Amino acid sequence: MVPCESDGDATLQFASSPLQPERDDPIEPFAGYALALAASAVAAFAAAAAERWLGLRDPSVVFMLAVLLVAVRTRTGPALAAAMSCFLAYNFFFIEPRYTLHVEDRSAMVLLALFLVAAGFAGRLASSLAMQVQALRRAQTRTATRQRLALQLSQAESEAQMTAIAADALRDAFGADAWLRTDARANDVQETESASLSVLRRSGGDGRPNSHRETAEQHGWWFLPLRTADHTFGAVGLKFPAAARVPDAEDREAVREMVHDLAQALHRLRLATALQDERVRSEAERLRSALLSSVSHDLRTPLAAILGAAESLERYGDAIEVQDRGALLAMIRSESERLDRYIRHLLDMTRLGPGAPPLRRDWIGVDELLGAVLGRMRRQHPAALFQVDIDPTLLPIHVQPALLEQALFNIIENAATFSPAGSPIRIRARHASGQRVCIAVTDRGAGIPAAERAHIFDMFYSVARGDRGRDGTGLGLAISRAAIIAHGGEIEADAGTDGVGTEIRVWLHADEAPERAA
Amino acid sequence: VSPAPAEGNASGARLLVIDDEPQIRRFLEISLRAQGYRVDLAETAAAGLDHLARVGTDLLILDLGLPDRDGGEVLRTLRQWSQVPVLVLTARDDEREKVAALDAGANDYVTKPFGLAELMARIRALLRGHAIPADAEPVFDDGRLRVDLARREVHVDGELVALSRREYALLAMLVRHAGRVITQPQLLRELWGPTHQEDTHYLRILVGKLRQKLGDAAAAPRWIVTEPGVGLRLLTP
After folding, report:
1. Closest Cα to residue A39, out of A31, A49, A51, A28?
2. CA-to-CA distance for A171 and A151, rounded, in angstroms?
3. Which residues does chain B have within 8 Å of residue A332's beta carbon, measured at their own beta carbons?
């Protein structure tokens, strides 16, 4: 039966098999008493043999040995039974007159009495010692289990992993079927349990009144709330199969501790997640405000220029010199292009953000991609100079061509923006380690301080060095990085050749080509 | 509609513009007329197709984002009865849409916002390609590259170039559509057959070999231009 579907009565705090607090010996009681009898019989034979062939006059030591052996193997009851049966056998077989329980000799009487007392003591001592050893061993096992659980929980990365680990640990340690739930539904179970606890308290018993124990035993489930001091995370249900050892008070305590450890681990994980969410939220907030200020600045500035130039021409066209009219028209065109670039960047960014569609990969040569980029660069930045060096042995790469073309275009356009006039941008494409292709774009501009290099790929990050391109949207390199990461590639910025300018390097996987040749 | 030849290349050709945006229609009308073309305008696909059926045109400029009918559908309808060259205008920067339009029968495309120089170059290439009569001597010659489709001969700077059967087939296909983009699916269908439309890797290898034999470079192409995600284009002088 599924615990969370059960009715209120079923979701009691303790619902395991019949409770027998004194039972935790390795040998069942009946077997213990049988052992006591058998040991007494063996001792009687051994004593008889010793008397006959070794001339042992007083065999009480043999019987004492039997009592001790039984005591360490069983518990107090069988140990006392062994003492009693040995006492009887000793009396019956070895005390004159033999084969009767009648004792004539006073000293024999005393000896018998002393034997009984000593056997009783020894049996009890030995059995309690054995029990202590057992308890210690079990405590050690529990501690080890708990430590192992704590270690595994500390390495788990998700709630699902944590609950699975805890369920396994409970199963291994107690042979119990464990059911764990960490959702609102499980909190219902916990509430039901609190309610039944109050019922228990009212019934005034030891917390396990008969009426409830019945339901408990019927369903065989033991539910515990999964909680720390301040938080509840759900509930744990345990079912001990009939074949498994019945949990004693210490087992139950150990289960409670393990469940508590799990609750704490869940608490830690949720705190960490909340912290991470908060970080993401504040980053999103930062981006939102940066986007707003960027939209208002980068959209409005070119719009203002276009509007102003167009209105000037419309109103005062006749009064404006031909040369200035040309300048205004050129401004309308160039500002419109700037607006177009900005909108394109915004669109690209939304295409690459979270929830972006999967890549539509296709084969394309690195030289073909760079050819398309350079074609666009020559149209849009006719003054830029290039020095291109592509390894002719490079094979086609498997990428989303248009996306990667845009990524490389942004990098090269950025380099062009920072390059001093007349100094060529160096573009190299080479084989790189690990079946990869490396594309490096080097300018000889002012360069970027080492500390800021990692940030130039952040959205709206403007390098505070005064020469940021007027047309920069603060998005170009962020788009490049997002596109390259989407392809499983890497991007980094470094100082250029001889420490002059900047070199941006891109690595992309050179996938295996399909088998058949063209 | 009064044709007023302005610049030297005025052909007096008749162009039909189908676009629902009045600003686009207005500026296209002004600039195309300034180039000496005769311009007809339509606001919807229905009106445009009606005009085509009644009057006809030498070249159609078709916006893909029409309110009344999907651009691809217009193209497929049109292609059932007309082979008029079609230049597609698209506002979406999505190469899939371009490929779809080209496969549906468009001959070329420009993305909004487009430069006027680019638009005029595309129109000229389309009108020229269309103007070559089927029985004319099928030779492409830009001064350096000469492709004789009748003799199946290719010369670069006067030197005969030996091409494999497939390399020649690719070059011939580009030459027959010189100046226009040919999509990858079209190239793959033509060169390898309909079952190999995904095998773009072969196409890359083949283009690479063809470029090598012609002495062309993909990074700075003289003849064969790759449009990433769309297809190939042979540059015309």
Report:
1. A31
2. 17
3. none
State how far the Cα of A69 lies from the Cα of A130, in Å rounded to an integer. 11
User: Smallest Cα–Cα separation from B12: which of B45, B53, B59?
Assistant: B59
Of residues B206, B227, B229, nearest to A362 (C-beta): B229
DSSP-derived 3-state class of residue B161: coil
Following CA atoms A66, A68, A70, A71 in sequence, which dihedral angle do they give, to the nearest 10 degrees?
160
Spatial separation of the C-alpha atoms in residues A64 and A452, rounded to whole Å: 86
Search chain A and give the residue with CA nearest B203. Answer: A518
- The alpha-helical segments, DSSP class H, found in A4-105 are 29-49, 60-73, 76-89
CB–CB contact A362 B200 (8 Å): yes
**A257-273 burial code (b ≥16 CB/10 A, e <16):** ebbbbbbbbbbebeeee
Tell me the residue type at A398: H
Q: Are B123 and B130 in contact (CB under 8 A)?
A: no
Q: Average pLDDT by consecutive 10-residue portion of chain A (518 residues)?
A: 37 34 52 87 88 83 86 80 85 83 81 84 83 85 86 86 87 80 63 37 38 44 79 80 68 84 88 86 77 76 88 87 89 87 82 78 92 90 92 90 91 89 92 92 87 81 49 78 90 87 92 59
B-contacting residues of A 66-125, CB under 8 Å? none
Q: How many CB atoms lie within 10 A of CB A111?
A: 17
Amino acid at site B63: D
The distance of B114 to chain A (nearest Cα, Å) reads 10
**A404/B202 CB distance under 8 A:** no
Tokens encoding B100: 């779809």
8 Å CB contact of A360 and B96: yes
At residue A418, what are phi and psi to the nearest 5 degrees?
Answer: -95, -5
Give this complex's ipTM: 0.80
Chain B contact for A32 (CB, 8 A cutoff) = no
Interchain CB contact of A351 with B (< 8 Å): no
Q: Residue A16: its pLDDT value, please?
A: 35
How near does any CA of chain B get to the CA of A367, in Å? 5
Q: Calculate how close chain B gets to A507, using CA atoms only, in Å.
A: 19
Cβ pair B200:A363 closer than 8 A: yes
- Per residue in B4-49, pLDDT tens? 444 444 568 999 999 998 888 999 999 999 989 999 999 999 999 9
Mutate to test the interface with B, among A367, A394, A409 (most CBs of B within 10 A): A367
Task: Tell me whether A419 touches chain B (CB under 8 Å).
Answer: no
d(CA A211, CA A221): 15
**Which residues in chain B are closer than 8 Å to A359, comparing Cβ atoms?**
none
Task: Count A/B contacts: CB-CB distance under 8 Å.
Answer: 80
A378/A409 Cα distance (integer angstroms): 11
Quote the longest CA-to-CA distance of chain B.
54
